[in-house]
Amino acid sequence: MGNAGLKPHYETASKTGVLQVSDHKLKEIPPEVMNLCEVLRNLDISKNKIACLPDNMNKFKLLKQLNIQGNKLESLPDCIGDLKKLDLLNASNNQIKSLPPSTSNLTNLKKLYLNSNHFTTFPTQLLGLKNLEVLEMSNNKLVEIPSGMNELYVAELNLSQNEISVISDDLHNAPRLKILKLDENCLSLDAISPSLLRDSKCHTINLEGNLFEIKQLALLEGYNEYTERYTAMKKKMF
């Protein structure tokens, strides 16, 4: 479909601040989209064929939600950090290997989706982002969870379907972490530290599909404390 027939979308977006032009075989962001930079709060350009974002993306000063998933992006421009109002960024299903340094400036970011990309190292630019609630990084090529997790403020962290074999000793100090998904990685039983089970705030830790049987977790120190948190969480739900 390309850029044809999108004029009504642009006209509506100029009034609503919301533009959805997904699945139009776009290879770049059309000039008409850039012309809306002063009004857009929500931009969805997902499921296109865009290989790079322009260096003037920071013109979208009011942007709160940006959906660029399902494109051909290998990186994000450094100006992405100037989108100070951004609270949701969906960059999943691309070919991104790392985040620009300026990502650490996205202080209002609440939800970040980076699943199905090419990350080999955990993006430490996200440490210190106190409003970040959900980080989705499943189906990448991460090999470890690095130290510094005491500054990771997410409540939900999904690192399933990676190649993780090492978990940092300070993951239990992540101040708000409640849900940790580590299914289908390369973790051995001794990679699960007693502190993670005993001292963290996690009430749900998913570990299916690693190098041990789930029933073996019951042998670890701290397992009883973990199950107590899980049971308490279930009681609150019902």
Automatic annotation (TrEMBL):
SUPFAM superfamilies in the record: L domain-like
Q: According to the entry, what is the taxonomic lineage of the organism? A: Eukaryota, Metazoa, Ecdysozoa, Arthropoda, Hexapoda
**Stored InterPro entries:** Leu-rich_rpt, Leu-rich_rpt_typical-subtyp, LRR_dom_sf, LRR_domain-containing, LRR_R13L4/SHOC2-like
According to the entry, every stretch annotated as the Disease resistance R13L4/SHOC-2-like LRR domain falls at: 57-182
Q: Which SMART domains does the UniProt entry name for this protein? A: LRR_BAC, LRR_TYP
Tell whether Repeat is among the UniProt keywords.
yes
- This protein's superkingdom? Eukaryota
The record's keywords, sorted A to Z, are: Leucine-rich repeat, Repeat
- Taxonomic source organism: Plutella xylostella
This chain belongs to the protein called Leucine-rich repeat-containing protein 57
